[in-house]
Amino acid sequence: MPHSFDFSPGYKFIASCGMDRHIMLWNPFSAKSIGSLSGHSASIKEVLVVEQEHQLVSVGVDKVVKASAPSPPFNPTLPPTPALGYPRVGRLFPTLTW
């Protein structure tokens, strides 16, 4: 069960977090997962997409804050091509490998 989620109208994805220590990225139009990010060593309490600063920020229950900037261009609402699929999540948030 998610602890928190945030919708990014600019990047057109939903980020959710919870007990499993991963941030999940979702396509809001298909309700399909487009990737996950890991790096927290405890459950994640809060996730926030700060579009004005081009950052995704998360806070663990252990009070550790992680932040990263996405790598444009990224539009998860476009259908994936058979050869390319969606961009790797590591390219979207390259520093979220901690």
Fold topology:
Layout lengths: L1 E7 L4 E6 L3 E6 L4 E7 L5 E7 L4 E6 L4 E4 L20 H4 L6
Antiparallel strand pairs: 1-2, 2-3, 3-4, 5-6, 6-7
DSSP helical segment count: 1
Number of strands: 7
What is Rg? 13 Å
CATH architecture assignment name = Beta Barrel
CATH class: Mainly Beta
Distance between the termini: 24 Å
Mean pLDDT across the residues is 74
CATH topology, anyone?
Answer: Thrombin, subunit H
- Please estimate the helix content: under 10%
Summarize, please:
Helix content is 4%, strand content 44%. With 98 residues, the chain is mostly beta strands.
What does it look like?
The chain is mainly beta. It has a single domain, classed as Beta Barrel (Thrombin, subunit H). The protein has one helix at 89-92, and strands at 2-8, 13-18, 22-27, 32-38, 44-50, 55-60, 65-68. Strand 6 and strand 7 (65-68) form a beta hairpin. The chain starts with a strand and ends in a 6-residue tail after the last helix. Residues 73-98 have low confidence and may be disordered.
From the structure above, extract its key features.
single chain; mainly beta; Thrombin, subunit H; 3-stranded antiparallel β-sheet; 1 helix; 7 strands; globular; disordered C terminus
